[in-house]
Amino acid sequence: MGSFKRRMVQFASTLIGNGYFKGFAKGTIYRGKLKSFCFPGLNCYSCPGAYTSCPIGSLQSVAVGLKHQVSLYVIGLLMLIGTIGGRFVCGWLCPFGLFQELLYKIPSKKYKMPKFLSKLKYFFLTVFVLLLPALFTNEVGIGLPYFCKYICPAGTLEASLPLIIRNAALRRAIGIMYYWKLLLLGVTVILAVLFSRPFCRVVCPLGAIYSLFNRVSFYQMNVDSSKCIKCDICNKNCPVDIKIYENANSPECIRCGICMGKCPTKAIGSGFKTGKRRMEDEKVLDTGSGTHSCH
Amino acid sequence: MRDKVKYMFLMLSFILIIAGIYRGEAGEVLEKAIDICLECIGIG
């Protein structure tokens, strides 16, 4: 039931975020004022259906301009979302996360992602999103959105393909970069069939930003150590392959909650924890009858 | 301690958003996002 509810939320988020259907029909994009807001997940703002902006695209688009090298506005929005839910967005709201989860359902041999690769997303964030667009500029001081241009397959899927199909002028402008992006999307699709959420875990700079807030966010996962029997069922069902009983708020946890539904002893919980609520939890724990809060 | 940090981040995020809007960044984001990003779609 929880899994079905999450899937419905993922579809609803994708549809609401990309609900400008006229754009798909005409091969154009939405040009209204809602585009000054950022979508919480990775969702290309050149998608014909997108009502809002992609936060990673926006970070770069401000950095490549002449006025500012860092966007306080976008960083503030991401900090707000991260402080509230950490990587909750990754597990529940991100359209590209949903796309990868659906691909992983295709029957095939499945592989485990080597853990060290998860550090790479911080490299993509630092180099391709923050440094290159701000530092490598042309003679007049204008840079390029390096991550969008050279790395991001979400733009190819959500924007490039629907626009190219409907827009003849764009079709005529296709060059080598288009095929590079198409190749990247193809590789991402194949990897997403074989590995669980490969882009989220290895490449996504937005996931890298939200991961920094997992430990301090208001929304927290917790494990009742008195109930946990370390059967590892949580780990076997985890899409990002973490042992939640070892680190309930690991930076890799996307807060999808699959482990909560699978835990045979109901040892895993989650919720919004404020100072008052935490003290109440600790009081219950002292009496020996309550749940253990992980923080 | 962790509670203090989360409230600090919450406050800081509001300050950054307000400062960004004051610097005209919301307008900048809008200005860029209403045109098709050719780099994003592999044409620019």
From TrEMBL, chain A:
It comes from Lutispora saccharofermentans. The lineage of its organism: Bacteria, Bacillati, Bacillota, Clostridia, Lutisporales. Signal peptide: none annotated. InterPro entries: 4Fe4S_Fe-S-bd (IPR017896), 4Fe4S_Fe_S_CS (IPR017900), Electron_Trans/Redox (IPR051684). Keywords: 4Fe-4S, Electron transport, Iron, Iron-sulfur, Membrane, Metal-binding, Transmembrane, Transmembrane helix, Transport. PANTHER family: FERREDOXIN-TYPE PROTEIN NAPH. The keyword Transmembrane applies. This is 4Fe-4S binding protein. It comes from the Bacteria. The chain crosses the membrane at residues 72-99, 120-137, 177-195. Residues 219-248, 249-273 form the 4Fe-4S ferredoxin-type domain.
